Amino acid sequence: MTFLPTGRSVQEPFISIPRGTDNHDVPSYGTFWRLLTKMAVEDVAQALRGWGRGEQPMALDGNILRGSKRAGAAALRVVVMAGQTLRNVLAQERGDEGRELAAAVRRLEAEDLEGEIVSADAGLLQAPLGQKVVEKGGPLSVSCKATIRA
């Protein structure tokens, strides 16, 4: 399954559109929306799993979801694994306050990192994460800002 941006000139490299065909013959966003809303979330996730992997560096970053704080409950924190080239979210893992590093290590445990490039923000770049990347077969490369004291 491939998702396409709108517009004939953008879609032509991805699918063959015969000359003389107007854009009404190309599936619209609405068509995909109707299809996807009728599918089980697990089926969509399974179909998309692995899409874009192996072709781009991956970045791990801890985030707090805006608007997720409710009365008496803390805001939802997640660790996101994103593709840096395609700018797509590859995976997410819930990480409670102070537990983002553990969530990042759990996320990496589920990945095949053989030959993959993984970067992380400073809050996650700690020994357990580096050890997991190396254990799973990924290269370890660390860079620091000049303002960080050793």
Uncertain spans, ≥5 residues at pLDDT below 50?
Answer: none
Give the rounded overall mean pLDDT. 77
Shape label: globular
**How many DSSP-defined strands?**
4
Oligomer category? single chain
Share of β-strand residues: 15-25%
By DSSP (H or I, 4+ residues per run), the number of helices equals 5
Which structural class do you get from the secondary structure elements?
alpha+beta
Physical arrangement of strands within the biggest beta sheet: 3-2-1-4
Helix content: 25-40%
> Roughly how many Å is the radius of gyration?
20 Å
Intertermini distance? 48 Å
What string gives the helices and strands in order? HHHEEEHEH
Largest sheet: 4 strands, mixed
Question: Could you give the topology of this structure?
Answer:
Elements: H1 8-11, H2 29-37, H3 41-48, E1 58-64, E2 77-83, E3 89-94, H4 100-109, E4 118-120, H5 127-135
Parallel strand pairs: 1-4
Antiparallel strand pairs: 1-2, 2-3
Write a compact overview of the structure shown.
By secondary structure, this protein is an alpha+beta fold.
Describe the structure.
With 150 residues, this protein is an alpha+beta fold. 27% of the residues lie in helices and 15% in strands. It has helices at 8-11, 29-37, 41-48, 100-109, 127-135; strands spanning 58-64, 77-83, 89-94, 118-120. A four-stranded mixed β-sheet has the order 3-2-1-4, covered by helices on one side. Helix 4 runs parallel beside helix 5 (127-135). The termini are far apart.
